[in-house]
């Protein structure tokens, strides 16, 4: 796609790689098995509620005017948060699907992701990974459908928003792509490749 390398496209849709999906689940599994010594109020919170609170704090850090060099680390933590699920099995399956996708074992990846979105329809990152798979297979409308589901579940998913822009560009819809890129930057202003895409499209479409 014009203006993006293959690596940039994958980063936009996949995030920061497989590491975020392989180390965090094990730590979480230990936390679930061994109750912490925190207060009763904290213990009553569900894992999903705790992840949501963590995400709010991380996005606040991402938008801090002094974020600067810390932004990549905050982004990594956000991707790690998105990779988590109440089900350890779901987390591990997502990691396996990501590895299969990275190894270009597309059918295996698709089988696992189809199973994930069926079993865990509220797992936004599973939909995001399948959107990536559809994009790589040039099934653009299906990719957009999965991206819409991601954004229903997690409106701040800047990976899905930037991916939406890439898909729309591939479909020859630059106006809609520019809108998606701008929205992605409103959520995460630190994405250099998306900034470049916005600048390029604004030059081509100065009236938008």
Keywords:
12 helices, 208 residues, globular, mainly alpha, disordered N terminus, 0% strand
Unreliably modeled segments: 1-9, 16-34
Query: What's the helical proportion of residues?
Result: over 70%
Say how many strands there are. 0
Oligomer kind: single chain
Q: Helical segment tally?
A: 12
Rg value: 17 Å
Alpha-beta content class: mainly alpha
Structure write-up:
The chain is built from 12 helices and no strands. With 208 residues, it is an all-alpha fold. The longest helix has 16 residues, at 47-62.
Provide a compact summary of the structure.
By secondary structure, the protein is an all-alpha fold. It has helices spanning 6-14, 24-33, 40-43, 47-62, 71-83, 88-102, 106-119, 124-136, 140-153, 158-170, 174-187, 192-204.
Write the layout of secondary structure elements.
Elements: H1 6-14, H2 24-33, H3 40-43, H4 47-62, H5 71-83, H6 88-102, H7 106-119, H8 124-136, H9 140-153, H10 158-170, H11 174-187, H12 192-204
